[in-house]
């Protein structure tokens, strides 16, 4: 397996708890496959969580991707839900770095990836369904490092998370599926989603 570079250009002002869990997961998985993870375009006041900073594959970067790859822009592939073609294993030869929007998913999608598209990087799609950022990196890794075609990756779309007999929530995204049919999510994410759902209910009371 050849290590690649995964760049998430952080497009939000702050780092929310969801993004933090996603970024820790991307860093851990990059560490496992000998690849690198850059979180770029960070505001000078951005505080890198200790758990993230401690993972050797991870680099916090104030510069944006345009500056980082100024002389090798054509080697950067933007993972773009509106890309004209889908990512394929052969793209491992075409690109060294894979660029993602550091944005939380939204429903309906607001196309904030357009901010990166406007910079002129070549784009590839990961199929027609919106993924979370860590899922998009995981799928890209399976395709370019693991040489698995997109269509052979097992997915689960819009899974329902059941918290107890009465409470559940549907996630409006596509995830990679484990052998027992569960969506792969960052460690601690289900608990966080449940906490946020409980908070929402408390706010309504
Ligand atoms: N609603 C979003 C938007 O405003 O563009 C999608 C954000 S998605 C949660 C975060 C990033 O994951 C995107 O910027 C893109 O790089 C990548 N991504 C997610 N789903 C994708 C797909 N189906 N094809 C290509 N890239 C995808």
Automatic annotation (TrEMBL):
Pfam family, one: SFM1-like
A Gene Ontology molecular function term of the record: protein-arginine omega-N monomethyltransferase activity
InterPro entries for the chain: SFM1-like
Source superkingdom: Eukaryota
Protein name, UniProt field: SAM-dependent RNA methyltransferase
Protein's UniProt keywords contain Membrane: no
Any Gene Ontology biological process: methylation
PANTHER family associated with the record: PROTEIN ARGININE N-METHYLTRANSFERASE SFM1
Upper classification of the organism: Eukaryota, Fungi, Dikarya, Ascomycota, Pezizomycotina
Species per Swiss-Prot/TrEMBL record: Cercophora samala
Key words of the record: Methyltransferase, Transferase
